[in-house]
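Anyone up for a design puzzle?
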């Protein structure tokens, strides 16, 4: 039922988080029926946008990537999304005991996976790679993902809202640190020759 939760998280998240909690979904099922599928949206959209549409900086010519370069970069992007969700989920489980979450309620990867849903869906805007439009859509999706985190964590982990607020803030901090780390890794990857290759 993983993809079935997507609409619920966007329309009535409190009820949907309760349904997710009662379902006791395994991490494997979450990945195969939700994350692996939704993570394809931004990767495929970015591939199409960078190879077929292209982008402009100011009044310059339209810039596009070669198919091979775009495929390589989008593949790395897909892997980063899939792995990043798992790592954040494990951090959530690591913090859980500190915030009084019972061992049976450690649902970190489930929380991370469903919280990332708006970010994965909005990746569709990458088919039209215009910086201001992509940034605006990204900020809106990020804000909703943060809302889902603060709304869903106390429900999924079965802890009081005030404790959930502090817990969610800790998770958000880890997510921001991971984002900075990912940007650093990107620079390293580009420096060893796996950077963008533009069409002439």
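Challenge accepted. My sequence:
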């Amino acid at each position: 039922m993983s993809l079935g939760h997507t609409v619920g998280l966007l329309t009535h998240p409190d009820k949907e988080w309760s349904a997710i909690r009662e379902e006791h979904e395994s991490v494997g099922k979450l990945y195969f029926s939700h994350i692996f599928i939704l993570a394809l949206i931004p990767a495929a959209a970015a591939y199409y946008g960078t190879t077929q549409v292209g982008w402009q900086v100011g009044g310059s010519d339209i810039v596009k990537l070669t198919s091979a370069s775009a495929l390589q970069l989008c593949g790395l992007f897909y892997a980063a999304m899939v792995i990043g969700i798992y790592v954040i989920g494990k951090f959530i489980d690591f913090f859980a005991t500190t915030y009084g979450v019972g061992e049976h309620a450690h649902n970190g990867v489930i929380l991370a996976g469903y919280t990332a849903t708006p970010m994965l869906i909005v990746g569709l805007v990458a088919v039209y790679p215009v910086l201001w439009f992509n940034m605006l859509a990204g900020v809106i999706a990020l804000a909703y993902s943060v809302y889902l985190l603060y709304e869903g964590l106390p429900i999924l982990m079965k802890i009081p809202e005030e404790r959930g607020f502090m817990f969610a803030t800790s998770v958000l901090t880890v997510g921001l640190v991971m984002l900075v780390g990912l940007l650093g890794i990107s620079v390293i990857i580009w420096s060893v020759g796996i950077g963008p290759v533009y069409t002439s």
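A detail worth pointing out: The CA atoms of residues 60 and 114 lie 40 Å apart.
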